[in-house]
Specification:
Number of strands: 2
CATH architecture of the largest domain: Orthogonal Bundle
Order of helices and strands: HHHEEHHHHHHHH
Helix content: 55-70%
Radius of gyration: 24 Å
Number of domains: 3
Structural class: mainly alpha
Shape: flat
CATH topology of the largest domain: Multidrug-efflux Transporter Regulator, Chain: A, Domain 2
Distance between the termini: 66 Å
Length: 246
């Protein structure tokens, strides 16, 4: 590694002590103090690393998060509880509510169904975690549709109590189909067909995953994506051909 590269790397991993952070932010926020920084940490709004000796070390992201806390307090008069809810939404991949006490929503691209879709299947699903009420609100469905989607296995909650971006896309599509009189019970065959397609993928991929070569996991993932994309294209083509013949 060259000297300049080493210096760049050093700047990337450098952490600031609490005094350095205070010195950087105090000109913009004169009321900031060591005790307030510790209090904001106790509230869970910032979580700096600790050295083995117990000294706080702030990353660039920690400093920006701290600055955001102070701006929300000063300019929007948000209480710390509301700021905590703001960051909870951000950390779960949601758009924070425009006003304190509002309902966080999923980002628009997720609601629109672009994650995932047949043309975006190779992309990883966006890291989004929603509570039940947030999913219902973001998808524009009612509790009855939500309960039906769960009962037919079209959406499912994780052990941590969250729904993800795939659940949101399914719920959003179900809401649109409901306007045509197509209910969740009509969508159950899609769950069954998807499970069968997954079985086909696993038949091919499982032996690849058990190979001992270093690239086997990556190769298995790539093959799974390729086959899945082909199955999606096949399904869409068969439906399109059926509609044309009808």
């Amino acid at each position: 590694m060259t000297g300049s590269a080493a210096r760049t790397r050093s700047r990337e991993v450098r952490r600031l002590g609490i005094g350095e952070v205070l010195g950087a932010l105090q000109p913009e926020f004169p009321d900031l103090s060591h005790s307030k920084m510790r209090y904001l940490e106790d509230c869970g709004l910032v979580d700096p690393d600790r050295t083995p000796s117990g000294y706080r070390k702030y990353s660039t992201q920690d400093v920006e998060r701290l600055r955001t806390v102070l701006v929300l307090q000063r300019d929007r008069f948000m209480p710390l509880k509301a700021i905590g809810e703001y960051f909870d939404a951000v950390d779960r991949g949601l758009e924070p509510p425009p006003i304190p006490g509002g309902m966080p929503r999923a980002p628009r691209p997720v609601v629109d169904g672009s994650v995932p879709g047949s043309e975006h299947f190779a992309a990883e699903t966006q890291e989004t975690r929603l509570h039940r009420a947030e999913l219902v609100a973001s998808a524009g469905i009612d509790e009855q549709i939500m309960s039906d989607l769960e009962s037919f296995g079209l959406v499912s909650v994780t052990d941590q109590g969250y729904y993800d971006a795939d659940d949101l896309v399914v719920a959003t599509i179900a809401a649109e189909l409901a306007t045509y009189g197509i209910g969740a019970r009509h969508l159950r065959p899609f769950r069954t067909a998807a499970d069968r397609e997954l079985g086909l993928v696993e038949q091919v991929v499982t032996p690849l995953r058990h190979q001992r070569s270093a690239g086997s996991p990556a190769k298995a993932d790539e093959v799974a994506r390729e086959i899945s994309a082909l199955l999606l294209r096949l399904h869409a083509t068969i439906v399109r051909a059926g509609l044309r013949r009808a």
